[in-house]
Task: inverse folding
């Protein structure tokens, strides 16, 4: 903050002033946490056993405290909007125009519009000034912005953006009394509302200063890496060596593209610093590194399962949703859950209703009053009741209570003990649900689908960073590591496409106006100056600095950032090595090939029929896995009738027909009308079973189509039998046979055996899944 004249230089002076009662206001939570931690370490180093908690907090938290104090004193009657309430209000305002004008989702437009309005207010740009620029985006911003402000005035709401303005006015009117000594930290890009606050505090004789770290004499070098992955691995190896040497040092790796590459970064540092953690999280024990960037709350499995539960109250319910609920460890829906999942998959139904699911489980599962099946059915019965409540719910508060009851019914977050990470995730979701229930302030009525969608969006918008103990290594983005001091610092990604940062002007504010007020991200010149200042500050805040950049991005060559034009900078060219892989290569491993399974016992029956032979011919391992280890993938539900059912229907219809006809002579005696009737009767009898088995699928229209399909197919096949040159008698239909081949015994089923007049027998095998041609008869057989 250039408009604050006094400077608090270095941590020593800062801690002395904190000890004297000063208040430190930081730009974000991370810097406040770091300064608090540094102060505590300083007090311990001074031999102190007890000390007063320092008054270090983010500016946003301090502003909220001032507003609450004003409200307690009866001097502030407005109610400030939460972040989620404000965004939903913007979304509803924009919704009527979003599709008509921009052909986009309202939420996609609401974010840049909200940011544009915030810039207008933070830099005190009047609407009249914006109206001088005639464009559709300009007039849309003015219309939406004025509508938002009118709603806030009408309902006495206060935007988060304008809290600082209200506190500034209250200080000027001497309605609130801040600390006599305030120190600002981390505000490298302040706006006009910050300046007005500082001016108001100065007028009230408040002693102000701006905290800056002392400049450190440092050693620096440059590493030119092959690509991003190579650069990342080199940085991880570097931190590993430093931590093994001295874990008390403060080490940081700054990665400008951390937001886009978080998963790669996490995987690389976990593999390098914790090679013992080869399994998925959670992990036990202290961690050697912290990532400054969290991930959306909705990406955590515990939260995903909670959101999936809510889909049980909507219809239809996809089978995949049911599988997730049954198999999730955080949902104790009753054991054995995997068996029930397999049962549903085998049934073949792709979508369910709660009523149909409850009926199916009661008909299929054993009625054990103390068992898991009964427990699951009780939960489903309760869900059916909650589903009726969902029809009468219409406010966010009512839906919030409904969601809580649903999670409670399904046993979320599970019966097992949660570890620290899972506990934090569950608490954050419950806190977010409480925020969702407060949406009734701006969103009075919702449908069930809207309520689920909004809660899901809130979980996606909430970046959740798990709380953890301080670690020796900080892996962060550019801004998160600013204004912090380190013993060792690795600045990565310093190519000319990454630093300086590219400009990104807001699309709803005229670019000329953004240039006039020098708004954030408006021009390349502004971004260059900001990036250069950030780079120079990093250099001054670390004792040992490594700069690096990738020389290539796929097939493109990259150049060094202009900020790396430093005289006498040592340049190192080397490629990374995966130290964990190197260590494994040194170990002499013994390999043993165990490809032979124990032999079958004599006359041991192998279930699977002749499929055992076909699998064995194609792949012996596949045969062993399928028929001896019984390893198979779960059945997959399909739209419509499954191929297995279609084939079974053909077999059953033909079985009924030939049980009645018996000979080709009887077939030829029937005229077309009688034959058609005979086939239709057989089809009706067979399909009645499937209609009872799958009433959800075989309804009037679909049943009629399937009967027509079968009628056409069976008549065509019977026509082929009519054209055979020799008369025949059907002697066996769908007969089970036992075959012995050497010491192997197989069970098989023959579809049909015809006997000719000369006593010769012909085996028929119906093929409904593929077209059989005579071209394949001469190929090598099993």
Result:
């Amino acid at each position: 903050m250039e408009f604050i004249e006094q400077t608090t230089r270095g941590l020593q002076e800062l801690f002395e002033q904190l000890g004297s009662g000063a208040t430190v206001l930081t730009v974000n939570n991370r810097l406040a946490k770091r300064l608090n931690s540094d102060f505590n370490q300083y007090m311990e180093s001074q031999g102190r056993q007890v000390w007063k908690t320092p008054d270090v907090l983010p500016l946003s938290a301090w502003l909220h405290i001032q507003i609450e104090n004003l409200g307690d004193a009866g001097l502030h009657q407005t109610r400030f909007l939460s972040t989620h309430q404000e965004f939903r209000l913007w979304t509803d305002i924009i919704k009527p125009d979003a599709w008509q004008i921009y052909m986009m989702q309202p939420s996609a437009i609401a974010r840049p519009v909200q940011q544009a309005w915030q810039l207008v207010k933070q830099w005190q740009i009047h609407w009249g000034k914006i109206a001088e620029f005639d464009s559709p985006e300009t007039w849309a911003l003015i219309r939406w912005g004025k509508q938002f402000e009118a709603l806030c005035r009408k309902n006495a709401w206060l935007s988060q953006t304008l809290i600082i303005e209200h506190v500034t006015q209250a200080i000027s009117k001497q309605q609130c009394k801040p600390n006599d000594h305030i120190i600002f930290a981390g505000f490298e890009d302040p706006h006009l509302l910050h300046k007005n606050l500082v001016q108001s505090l100065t007028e009230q004789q408040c002693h102000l200063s701006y905290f800056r770290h002392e400049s450190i004499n440092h050693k620096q070098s440059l590493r030119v890496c092959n690509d991003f992955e190579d650069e990342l691995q080199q940085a991880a190896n570097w931190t590993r060596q430093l931590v093994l040497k001295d874990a008390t040092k403060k080490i940081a790796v700054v990665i400008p593209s951390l937001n886009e590459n978080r998963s790669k970064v996490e995987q690389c540092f976990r593999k390098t610093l914790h090679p013992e953690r080869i399994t998925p999280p959670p992990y036990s024990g202290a961690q050697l590194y912290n990532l400054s960037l969290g991930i959306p709350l909705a990406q955590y499995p515990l939260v995903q399962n909670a959101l999936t539960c809510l889909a049980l109250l909507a219809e239809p319910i996809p089978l995949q949703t049911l599988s997730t609920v049954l198999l999730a460890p955080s949902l104790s829906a009753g054991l054995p859950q995997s068996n029930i999942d397999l049962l549903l998959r085998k049934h073949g139904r792709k979508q369910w209703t709660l009523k149909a699911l409850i009926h199916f489980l009661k008909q299929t599962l054993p009625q054990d009053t103390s068992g898991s099946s009964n427990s699951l059915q009780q939960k489903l019965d309760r869900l059916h009741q909650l589903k009726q409540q969902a029809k009468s719910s219409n406010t966010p508060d009512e839906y919030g209570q409904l969601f809580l009851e649903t999670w409670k019914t399904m046993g979320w977050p599970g019966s097992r003990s949660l570890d620290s990470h899972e506990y934090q995730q569950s608490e954050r979701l419950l806190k977010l649900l409480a925020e969702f229930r407060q949406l009734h302030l701006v969103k009075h009525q919702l449908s069930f689908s809207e309520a689920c969608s909004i809660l899901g969006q809130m979980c996606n918008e909430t970046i959740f960073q798990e709380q953890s103990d301080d670690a020796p290594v900080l892996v962060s983005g550019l801004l998160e590591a600013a204004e912090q001091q380190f013993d060792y610092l690795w600045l990565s990604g310093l190519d000319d496409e990454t630093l300086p940062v590219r400009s990104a002007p807001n699309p709803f504010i005229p670019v000329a106006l953004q240039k006039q007020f020098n708004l954030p991200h408006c021009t390349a010149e502004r971004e260059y100056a900001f990036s250069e200042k950030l780079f120079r500050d990093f250099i001054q805040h670390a004792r040992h600095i490594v700069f690096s950049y990738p020389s290539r991005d796929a097939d493109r060559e990259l150049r060094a950032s202009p900020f790396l034009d430093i005289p006498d900078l040592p340049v190192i060219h080397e490629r990374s090595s995966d130290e964990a892989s190197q260590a494994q290569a040194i170990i002499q491993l013994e390999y043993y090939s165990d490809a032979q399974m124990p032999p079958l016992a004599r006359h041991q029956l192998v279930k699977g029929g002749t499929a055992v032979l076909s699998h064995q011919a194609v792949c012996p391992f596949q045969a062993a896995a399928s028929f001896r280890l019984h390893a198979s993938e779960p059945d997959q539900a399909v739209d419509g009738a499954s191929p297995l059912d279609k084939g079974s229907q053909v077999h059953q219809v033909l079985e009924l027909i030939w049980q009645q006809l018996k000979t080709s002579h009887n077939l030829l005696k029937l005229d077309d009308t009688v034959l058609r009737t005979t086939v239709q009767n057989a089809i009706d009898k067979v399909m009645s079973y499937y209609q009872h088995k799958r009433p959800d699928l075989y309804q009037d229209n679909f049943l009629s189509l399937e009967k027509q399909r079968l009628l056409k197919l069976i008549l065509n096949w019977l026509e082929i039998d009519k054209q055979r040159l020799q008369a025949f008698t059907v002697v066996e239909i769908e007969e089970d046979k036992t075959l012995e081949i050497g010491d192997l015994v197989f069970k098989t089923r023959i579809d049909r055996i015809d006997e000719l007049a000369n006593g010769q027998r012909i085996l028929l095998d119906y093929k409904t899944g593929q077209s059989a041609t005579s071209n394949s008869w001469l190929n090598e057989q099993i």
